[in-house]
From TrEMBL:
<dbReference type="GO" id="GO:0005737">
    <property type="term" value="C:cytoplasm"/>
</dbReference>
<dbReference type="InterPro" id="IPR006132">
    <property type="entry name" value="Asp/Orn_carbamoyltranf_P-bd"/>
</dbReference>
<feature type="domain" description="Aspartate/ornithine carbamoyltransferase carbamoyl-P binding">
    <location>
        <begin position="9"/>
        <end position="154"/>
    </location>
</feature>
<feature type="binding site">
    <location>
        <position position="114"/>
    </location>
    <ligand>
        <name>carbamoyl phosphate</name>
    </ligand>
</feature>
<feature type="binding site">
    <location>
        <position position="90"/>
    </location>
    <ligand>
        <name>carbamoyl phosphate</name>
    </ligand>
</feature>
<dbReference type="Pfam" id="PF02729">
    <property type="entry name" value="OTCace_N"/>
</dbReference>
<feature type="binding site">
    <location>
        <begin position="236"/>
        <end position="237"/>
    </location>
    <ligand>
        <name>L-ornithine</name>
    </ligand>
</feature>
<keyword id="KW-0963">Cytoplasm</keyword>
<dbReference type="InterPro" id="IPR006131">
    <property type="entry name" value="Asp_carbamoyltransf_Asp/Orn-bd"/>
</dbReference>
<dbReference type="GO" id="GO:0042450">
    <property type="term" value="P:L-arginine biosynthetic process via ornithine"/>
</dbReference>
<feature type="domain" description="Aspartate/ornithine carbamoyltransferase Asp/Orn-binding">
    <location>
        <begin position="161"/>
        <end position="309"/>
    </location>
</feature>
<protein>
    <recommendedName>
        <fullName>Ornithine carbamoyltransferase</fullName>
        <ecNumber>2.1.3.3</ecNumber>
    </recommendedName>
</protein>
<feature type="binding site">
    <location>
        <begin position="63"/>
        <end position="66"/>
    </location>
    <ligand>
        <name>carbamoyl phosphate</name>
    </ligand>
</feature>
<dbReference type="GO" id="GO:0004585">
    <property type="term" value="F:ornithine carbamoyltransferase activity"/>
</dbReference>
<comment type="similarity">
    <text>Belongs to the aspartate/ornithine carbamoyltransferase superfamily. OTCase family.</text>
</comment>
<feature type="binding site">
    <location>
        <begin position="271"/>
        <end position="272"/>
    </location>
    <ligand>
        <name>carbamoyl phosphate</name>
    </ligand>
</feature>
<dbReference type="InterPro" id="IPR036901">
    <property type="entry name" value="Asp/Orn_carbamoylTrfase_sf"/>
</dbReference>
Amino acid sequence: MTGGAGAVRHFLDLGDAGADDIAAMIADAIDRKAARVDKPKGVADADAPLAGRVLALVFEKNSTRTRVSFDIAMRQLGGSVLILDSGSSQLGRGETIADTARVLSRMVDAIMLRTDDHTKIEEMAAHASVPVINGLTDRSHPCQIVADLLTVIEHGKALPGLEVAWFGDGNNVLHSILEAAGLFKFNVRVSTPAGYEPDPAFVELARAGGSVVTLTQDAHAAARGADVLVTDTWISMGQADAAEKKAAMVPYQVNTALMALAKPDAVFLHCLPAHVGDEVSEDVFEGPQSIVFDEAENRIHAQKSVLLWSFGLLGI
Ligand code: CP
Ligand code: NVA
C-alpha cells in the first residue's frame, strides 16, 4: 500500500487497492460497459464523473493499448488527457522524475507512467501530490491484470480456485497475475525454462494470500486441467532480442497440443502485442478459445475503474 487513509491514491501495484476495491472496480466496469453498448466510443458516460479532470500519460516505452485505452477511458468519464513521450519531453533530456512529478502535479489531476525501472514509478509517486498509475514497469503491469480478471469473469469463470497456467517468460505480466492470485485465491501453474522464473517475492506474495503456486519446467504439466492459459512475448520491451532466450522458450509455445490438455472450456489470454508463431501458434491465437480481443477491449473498461478508484470515487 502506498498511501494511508486520506492519502493520495497511487496505483503502483494491485495491492495498493486490495481485493475488495479491485472487486469494486470490476463490478463498476461491468456496469459501465453494459450501460454504454450503443454509444459511440468517444461519447461520455451519462454521469461523466471525471468532467474537468486531466490525466497526463507519460511514456518512456512504446504502447498501443495502454495509450488508447486511457485516452478513451478519460473521454468516456468526461475528462481529457495529454500525452508526454520521453523522446519529446524534458524527461528524455534528463530532467528528474522528482521534478517532473512536482511540475505535473501543479498542472494535471493524475499521472499515468509507463517506464522501465520500477523504482522510477515509486519515485514519481513519492514526489507527486496527485494519483500516479502504473502503466507498466519492468516489474509489474497491474492495469493489464484488472482487465484480465474482468475478461475471465465475463467469460463465466469465478476466480477462487481457478487454475491459471502461465507459459514462457517469468515477466512483469506474470508478476501481476501472481499478485492477483493471492488477492483472489486462484492458483497459478508457472511453466518457464530454467533461469526465467518469476521474482520469488511475487510467488511468496501469492502463496501468502492462499494461492497454490506451482513452478515447473514442464509446460504439459502446467496445461493439464487448466481453466485459463496465458502467455506473453518472450522478449519484453527493453530486453535484448537474445537468440538463446528464444530457443529456451520454444517448448512453452501455447499451441493446440497444449490447449488439448486443458479443460474443454479453457480460455486463452495474451496481453498483446503477440508474436504469433513464437509464444502462441496461429490456430490457438485465432481459435475459438482465444479471448484476446475481448481482453484488449476491456483495457478501456478496466482503466475507467482504476481512474475512478484513484480519484476516490470507487472503493472503500
Ligand atoms: N498490453 C499492453 O499493455 O499493450 P500496449 O503495450 O500496447 O500498451
Ligand atoms: N511483457 C511485455 C508486456 C507488453 C504489454 C513487456 O514488458 O514488453
